[in-house]
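Exercise 7.
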Amino acid sequence: MSDSTVSRTKTLNFNVGVLGHVDSGKTSLARALSSTASTAAFDKNPQSRERGITLDLGFSSFTVDLPHHLQESLGQQQQQHDSLQFTLVDCPGHASLIRTIIGGAQIIDLMMLVVDVVKGVQTQTAECLLIGELTCPRMVVVLNKIDLLPANKRQSAIEKMTKRMHKTLEGTRFKECPVIAVAAKPGGPEAADTEQPQGVPELIELLKKQTYLPQRDPGGDLLMAVDHCFSIRGQGTVMTGTILQGSLAINDTVEIPALKVTKKVKSVQMFRKPVSGAMQGDRVGVCVTQFDPKLLERGVVCTPGSLRTLYAAVISVRKIGYFKGSLATRTKFHITVGHETVMARVTFFGLPPVAVSEPPSDSKPPQEPCSLETAFTFDREYFYQDEYLTGQREVTSGPDPEQWALLEFEHPVTCPSLCLVIGSKLDTDIHANTCRLAFQGRLLQGFEDKGYADTALPRLRIYKTKQKEGQVDRVTDDYTVIGRSLFKKETNLQLFVGLKVTLSTGETGVIEGGFGQSGKYKIRVQGMDLSDVFPLCLV
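Solution. The predicted structure, written as C-alpha cells, is:
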C-alpha cells in the first residue's frame, strides 16, 4: 500500500454543535454553511420531513483554509494540517428530544446557539445554553431570521436583541462570546432558493476566528460515539460517529459493548473520502462485515474490554442552579451517562456535618463549586442526606459543599470512567417554562455485579444520626442515674454501651449498661448536680 494511501488526512477536524429552540432555523443554517452532507444531515429522517423539525442528530461539513492562528498553534508538531474542516452537529430543538441534544453536545468543540431574533430566548434555548456550559468551552450566538424584521427597524432590533443576549449570558462562562446576525433561509424553509442567505460569509469568518487547537490524543483505548448505523449492499455495515478518545485503523478489532460482540474494521471514511485511520475528534464512517445494523442505532464502539456495563454507580454531584425545587433522596431521575439515558434512583450523601461546617481556609478562597472529579474512597465515612444540600445554609453561604450520589439504574448502562453524568426530570411538562436539567456530575465508581446491593454496597460507609428522648428514673449516687423510656425491654442494650447521652441542662454522660429487665439503663454522669430530674436525649 502506498504512503499516500496510508497517510491520514491533513485536514484538521473541528466539531461545531448547532443548538437552539425548535424552529429557530438550525437546519437551514447548517445547510447554508455546508458543502458536504453526511448520511444523517439535513432532516433526511421521514418523520423530520413530515413534522418539519429535526428528530435526530444531523451531520454536515465544510472546509476552509487553515487560519493563521491555528498554523502558529500547530508550531513544530510533526502532524501538520493544510485545511480546517468544520463538522456541524445539528441537534434537535424540541423539548422531548433533550436526550439527543445531550448526546450531541458531548462531541463538540464549539457551540453555535441559534436564536430566533424575533422571539428571543425560549425554554429550550435556555436548556441548550445550560448543556453547552456543561460540555463545551466556547460559544457563538447566531441571531437568525433577520429577514423577518422590518427593513427600517432591522438594525435597531438586532442591536436590542444583542444587548439582551449579552445580559442573559452575564452569569455564564460565555459572557464574552460574540453575537452575529444572519438570515439562513430568507423567506422561510418553504421559500425558493433564489434568495441568497444573509450574513453567512461573515459567520464563517467568525467561526474561523473562534477556532482553537482542540486537544487530540491518538493514545489510549478507542471510544467512539455511534449515532447512525446502516448497511451498504456488497460492502457491509457502516457505523458513523465521532471518536471521543483514542484512534482506530483498518484491520483493528473493535467491540460493540452493548451487544458483547467484536468486529474487524474493513474500511474507514471521513465524509466519503477513504482514509487508513482516524483519531480523537474525527467524524468517521467505519465499515464492518456480518453485522445487522438494526441491532445498533446509537451507542458506543470501543477497544475490546475497555468499557464496563454498570448496574449502579457513585458520582460526584452538583445541582444546576436554574433547576427549581429540591433534589430529594430516593427520587428517580433521567440519567444521561455516556450516550445513554436511563431512569435511576438517587441517594445523596456527603461529608459528616462537622467536616462540612468547618470554615474555609483563608489560603484557599472558594473560586467556584467543588471539582466534579472530587475524590471518593470506600475507606471514608459519609453522611446520609435526605436531599442535596445547597450552599445557602444558616451560618454560611457560598459554593455547595462536597457531595456524592449513588445511582441505581433501572437498566444497565455501558460507559467509560469519569464520564459526564447529567440528571434530568424529562417527565416535566414540556410546555412549562422551567428548567428540566437538575444536576451534573462525574462517574467515579461503577458496580458491574448485578447483585451489587449485597456484594458492593456494604463497603459504602454511609450513616445517619438518630435521636431519641427519655427520662431520668432515679439517681443512685453523685455520678450515676437510672434512665428509662429510650429502649424496649427486648432491646440488646450492649449495642448502645458507650454512646453519649445529653441532659436538658447540657451535661453529658455515657451509657454504662442495662439496669434490670424492663429496658432501663445506667448512665455515668460527671460534673453536675443530680438533685433534679432531667429528660435525657440519646445522640
